[in-house]
Amino acid sequence: MGIVSNSRLMIKICEMYYMQNLSQKEISSRLSVSRPQISRILAQARAEGIVNIKINNPHRNESELEQTLIRCYSLRDALVIDNGGENASDRMERFAAEAAGQLDSYLPGGSAVGVMSGNTVKSVVEAMPFTKKKLQSVVSLVGGIGAGSVDLHANSIAQRLASKYNTSAFSLNAPALASDPVAAEMFRREPSVAKVLDMGSRCDIALVGIGSVCMEATNIRVGALTEVDLSYLRERGAQASICCSYVNAQGGNVGEELVTRSIGQSLDSLRKAKIIAMAFGDSKVEAIRAALNTGRVHVLITDLATAEKIVRLP
Q1: Contacts for 10-16 with beta carbons within 8 Å, 24 or more apart?
Q2: Shortest CA distance to 298 belongs to which of 269, 271, 259?
Q3: E strands within the chain?
Q4: For residues 193-232, b (16+ Cβ closer than 10 Å) or e, as one string?
């Protein structure tokens, strides 16, 4: 009888490993059975149903939605958060706290991290704890998005994240959107701006939000985009803004005229980066799907209600 076919021995090894918490090395020493054989026996026991492993997952709904999103949109990972609350402020606070607790695992020590502007990215970064891990650098991926709401600017968010990881932040001291393409090109040629743009294009990780193309969008509220710009984007089928790119429902690039006036990174210029996008809310469902359809988002962080709506879309 082969050792893998010895059912009594198989049960003994399983009891020692799973119930007595002995390591494979300890079992090998006690029973004079090699570690590779023990490994095969444990695998065979699971295949035959002798051992059944059950995970009591209190986040089962979220886990199932995560796997659906990963499968449907070819993501590397997804994080779905149950942030149910009575109002938008509560939901954002709960979302930021949960996302902040997980985000550190996506940021390897020594990596160069780029950050975008926006309320969601700002809230998550603010909720992150200080750590002994050290990043190589934190870089702003886009210029200023208006004279007000400075805390939503990428430069401010980069400074906050850099302070959490004991590293330096590099600010992009230019507007996110110039008045015309010529002015934008002049800004890009400034040595200090060109340096940060180059650093941003070579970052390892990009933390970005996903904007909807509507009057309630942050870019509109803070004055980075005008109503004329919004009408221009809508006429061309824009569903989402992500970085300095605008995309339609199928994930195709649109709004070239605005892109030529933009100062910051586009999806194309961030091809070396692992893009981690975070967004949630009813107004963001179509925008998130459009961003996912680009194939450029690697990790999505969203909430339970939004994920349910996304996976129900055809």
Answers
A1: 10/41, 10/44, 10/45, 10/50, 11/45, 11/50, 13/38, 13/41, 13/42, 13/45, 14/41, 14/42, 14/45, 14/50, 14/51
A2: 271
A3: 77-81, 112-115, 137-140, 169-170, 205-209, 211-212, 240-242, 245-247, 253-254, 274-278, 299-303
A4: beebbebbbebbbbbbbbbbbeeebbbbbbebbeeebbeb
Across the range 96-103, mean pLDDT stands at: 93
According to the model, what pLDDT value does residue 298 have?
97
Length of the chain: 314
Q: What is the mean pLDDT of the chain?
A: 91
Quick check: pTM over 0.70?
yes
Higher pLDDT: 31 or 190? It is 190
- Using DSSP's 3-state secondary structure scheme, residue 205 falls into strand
In 3-state terms, what secondary structure has residue 313?
Answer: coil
User: For residue 104, how far is the Cα from the chain centroid?
Assistant: 11
Q: What is the pLDDT of residue 61?
A: 87
Q: How far apart are the C-alpha atoms of 171 and 33, rounded to whole Å?
A: 60
Q: How many CB atoms lie within 10 A of CB 282?
A: 10
Of 273, 267, 282, 276, the closest CA to residue 301 belongs to 276
Q: What percent of the chain has pLDDT over 70?
A: 96
Please report the pLDDT score of residue 17 as a whole number: 93
Q: Determine the pLDDT at residue 231.
A: 92
